[in-house]
Amino acid sequence: MAPKKDWQSSMPENVEDEERLLPSDVAQPAAKAPATSRSFLAWAIVLLFLTFSLISNIILIRVPSLDRVCADYTSQYSSPMLDEVDIRYSTVQFDGTFMNLSIYAQPPGSGVDEAWLALGTNYRQVIVPENRAKAAGLSPGQNLLRQSSHWYYEHYKEQGEGAFVNDEEIVLIHYGKFDPDPTA
User: Fold this and answer.
1) What angle do CA 76, 121, 129 make, to 5 degrees?
2) Would you list the DSSP string of 81-97?
3) Non-local CB neighbours of 88 within 8 Å, separated by 6+ positions
4) Which of the two residues, 164 and 48, has the higher pLDDT score?
5) Half-sphere exposure of residue 124, counting CA atoms within 13 Å on the CB side?
């Protein structure tokens, strides 16, 4: 019986143990970085990106004043006052009964006139440029509308102040109820 040959005995004897298909500098796999350093680098990049995003948002996105946003939203016109005055809203309990009239809704009298004057209805120092007044929907005669109403006209006509120093025709022109040239 012939002796059994194992795989080692079938190899030629002159094959060196170190013989390889590729040179030794290429055949060796590159040394891998430890997994912890790769993980740290990935987390550092993510953290850097998030920090940059947060700082960019803080700088570039400014939260506007909610009072200003509300004033802009609830104004029908772009009031010049909104650019000049810092408006603040607060909650006020309102008594909406018809028997307790505010000073502005009472019959004509010196107290009512003083209250309207305190609102600035006769301020001459404030000049609004014409283009801004039109954009704001300003009408120079809001107080005159109140004074010229059916109920209050006689009272203010007797006082003879403001627009009422003029003839009735001029007052009606101011009021917008009289056209001096009906053919035009």
Assistant:
1) 60
2) HHHHS------------
3) 67
4) 48
5) 1
Q: Is the dihedral of CA 90, 96, 99, 103 positive or negative?
A: positive
Sign of the dihedral through C-alpha 32, 35, 37, 43: positive
Is the model's pLDDT at 80 over the cut of 80? no
- 88: tokens are 């603040």
Residue, of 143 and 170, whose pLDDT is higher:
170
pTM of the model: 0.31
Taking phi over 0 as left and psi of -120 to 50 as alpha, with beta for the rest, 117 belongs to alpha
Of 136 and 75, the structure prediction assigns the larger pLDDT to 75
Whether the CB-CB separation of 139 and 121 falls below 8 Å is answered with no
- 143 near 116, Cβ under 8 Å? yes
CA dist 145 and 122 (Å) reads 13
Distance CA(169)–CA(182), nearest Å, equals 13
Domain ranges of the chain: 101-184
Using alpha carbons, select from 175, 183, 119, 112 the residue that is nearest to residue 149: 175
**pLDDT score for 79:** 67
Q: Report residue 46 CA to chain centroid gap.
A: 32
Spatial contact of 115 and 103, defined as CB atoms under 8 Å apart: yes
